[in-house]
Amino acid sequence: MGASIVGLGMTELGRVYGRSPRRLAADAVRLAVADAGLALGDLDGLLVSHGMGGSPGIELAGALGLRDLRLLSQVNAFGATAGAMLSYAATAVLSGTATTVACVFADAPLKPKKSAGSAYNRDAREWYGFGGMTAALGLRSVNSFYALAAQRHMTRYGTTSEQLGAIAVSTRAWASRNPLAQMRDPITLEDHQASRWVSEPLHLLDCCLVSNGAIAVVVTGADRARDLARPPVHLWGWGQGHPGHRKERGSEYGLTTGAASSGATAMKMAGITTDDVTACELYDCYTYTVLVSLEDYGFCAKGEGGAFAASGALGPGGSLPTNTGGGQLSAYYMWGMTPVSEAVIQARGDGGERQVPANDVILVSGNGGILDHHSTLIVSPHEKGA
Amino acid sequence: MDIGVLRRDGRTDPFFDGTAAGRLVVRRCEACDRWFAPDETGCPGCGADDLAWAEASGEATLVTWTVTRPRDSDQPPAYLALVELAEGPWLHTRLDGVDPVSLREGLPLRAAFVHPDEGESYVLFRH
Question: What InterPro entries does this protein map onto (chain A) (predicted)?
Answer without folding.
Answer: Thiolase, Thiolase-like, Thiolase_C_2
